[in-house]
Amino acid sequence: MVTKTQTGSQPTFTVRDDYARVPTRDGTHLHARLWRPMADEPLPVVINYDPYRSTDSRTQGRGDIFHYLARHGFILVHLSVRGTDASDGVAVDEYAPAEQADGYDAIEWFAAQPWCNGNVGMIGTSYSGFTCIQVAMHQPPHLKAIVPINATDDRYTDDVHYRGGALHTFDQVTTYGAAMPARNALPTLPEHAGDRWLDLWTEHLNGNPLWLATWLEHQTDGPYWRAASLRPGYDRIRCPVFICGGWQDAYRNATLRVFQHVSVPKKCIVGPWTHSFPDQGNPGPGVDFMGMVVRWFDHWLKGIDTGFTEEPALLVYVQEHTPPRPRRTSTPGFWRAEPGWPVPGAGEKAFYLGAEGGLRDAPSAEGGEERYEYRATVGTQNLGWGGCPWIGAPADQRPDEMYALVYTSPALTERTHVLGNPKAVIHFASTAPVVNLVCKLSDVAPDGSSALVTTGLLNVTHRASHERPEALTPGEVYEVTVELDATGYVFAAGHRIRLAVSSSDWPNTWPSPYPATNRVFYGGGRVSRLVLPVAPPKEADQAPEMPAPRMPTGIYAQEPGSTEWQVTRNVYNDRVTVAIRGGGGGRLSEALAFHTERSSVLTASDADPSAASCDSVTRLEMRMPHETVVSEGSLHFTSSREAFHLVYDLTVTLNGREHFRRVWRRSFPRRLV
User: Do 258 and 132 meet the contact criterion of CB atoms below 8 Å apart?
Assistant: First the structure.
């Protein structure tokens, strides 16, 4: 029975730390840290499930959130996947079948505990958002609601590995792929494993593989990627879903697809953010998302009806123009509330590529073509492809547009509301058998600055299928459709709409290997066009009221993070180098201080696009009362026309002496990538 109330749960509970060993069906035990409200009555459990270690990094990044939920009467659990932190076993890969089964077993174990009321939810960002969806696919009986944030339904098309069939560089190789072996090589605190501390650490060191190698073995879509993907089987989700994403994040497409296709009670919010929690939204404005989460879990886990489920199902932030500066902290715009997706009354508006770089209202009767040389180093103004809040928003696109074909509309006479996935239909030919097609939609202000709105990329060998790519026949003309990432945006009157077409998005995407001269055809029988998803106008005076963040922060203090991003061109050999440095950390307790340093140097060549390289180092340091552990992973990643090559050196020291070392050396044939 649902109890009606106007207020819902209040932050009145005192919270204590607790720990549990959670058994799974094959005898493996998982480590769980609990933020436990002190109460006499049974309470619901909410699980965050990932490999990011409650010992250190997950508490640093999400401890305030976990504490806030616990203060409202939810037992918050950080559950470590097998092979990480103090969990038994080996982390054979991300989202492995055993990991999904473990999540099911953990939900049922927690539901059976006398201090649980039998209702379990899941919440999480990124990896832990993925596990919300993946575990829900298996329909554990006591999983009553999930809140996935910045998560995906499709591990091949919308994750950090491949984008449009091209190798995603920045996350798969440079950051995430290079960092996870070092992170998985850290020990837990001795207090969490007792006398088994060293044996457990040894099991992880000797057993955990290099995930990056597995991803490079699977360059096309297929059973490997489908095993942990919800799409297209949305009917496998049987519990209510409250899903959240950001327009500057990598997972915005998946957020809206899940909301559209699941047939359960559902909510969705999409803000202007990167890969960050909405209460700490970057760029802002942030919102009281955790207040919404409390109301959501109140309804489904406690039987308290605060009216949240009767409010509009979809909240989207509609962005407006702001000067393109990477370090901006806020985005102008307003919220709009909708009953579903696509929004009622949505349609399409086409702009047609034409002569002299024009975007026209109608296709020209006379055909034409333009050509451009493929330059592997174009893309540095894009800065980060989602998932990178430490980098910031894109810069002015004009430096990249110098080496692209650019099509621009006349100044708009009225505001144009775009809400959904734009697409570019391009009649295209290349001299190369493998080439990428990159399409960028920008807002050109009266001062001439070009602010990126959204992008799309397709490895053209994947034009018909991600499972069975086909090489291009040099010179043959293909009609290619490139879907751009979803956006919510209003182009102002007096501004112009721009489509830029190139074949590189460096360093987000690894360069295709062949030099190429590319041609774009328009007019006549070849109707190249930009198609915008337009929505019925709604303006700021119709916006729903969105409370500002209320969650206290600073309970789990962190050192301010730092990032440096430098781009250098060697004019003598046409090579562009991107150098990135960053770090952060903090003291989590009297017993533990944790610090991260990361650096990457990426180089691409216009003269020889096959000869790109990445050198990335991740250094993690744990300082405990009697032990200091340093785990350092060093990746050297290069390519030739035929293959990718990697050397990964993992070194772990204990109190300044080498404790473990392993080196991987692998090559992977390029499969039309």
Answer: no
Please, what sign has the CA dihedral across residues 320, 154, 164, 463? negative
Amino acid 87 reads: S
pLDDT digits (tens, 9 = 90+) for 169-185: 988 898 899 999 999 99
Domains and CATH numbers, the chain: 13-155+234-338 (3.40.50.1820), 158-227+557-673 (no CATH), 347-536 (2.60.120.260)
Nearest by Cα to 316 from 234, 231, 417, 391: 417
Contact predicate 244/148, CB 8 Å: yes
H-run or E-run covering 508: none
Q: Which residue reads 């054979």 in tokens?
A: 92
- What angle do the packed helices 289-297 and 57-71 form, to 10 degrees? 60
Distance CA 77, CA 65 (A): 11
Beta-carbon contacts of residue 402 (< 8 Å; ≥ 6 apart): none
Q: Which residues contact 277 (CB under 8 A, 6 or more apart)?
A: 62, 65, 125, 149, 289
pTM, two decimal places: 0.97
User: What's the rounded Cα separation, in Å, for the pair 489 and 272?
Assistant: 10
Q: Per residue in 471-518, pLDDT tens?
A: 999 999 999 999 999 999 999 999 999 999 999 999 999 999 999 999
Residue the block writes with tokens 């005076």: 541
Phi-psi region of 188 (alpha: psi -120 to 50; beta: other; left: phi over 0): beta
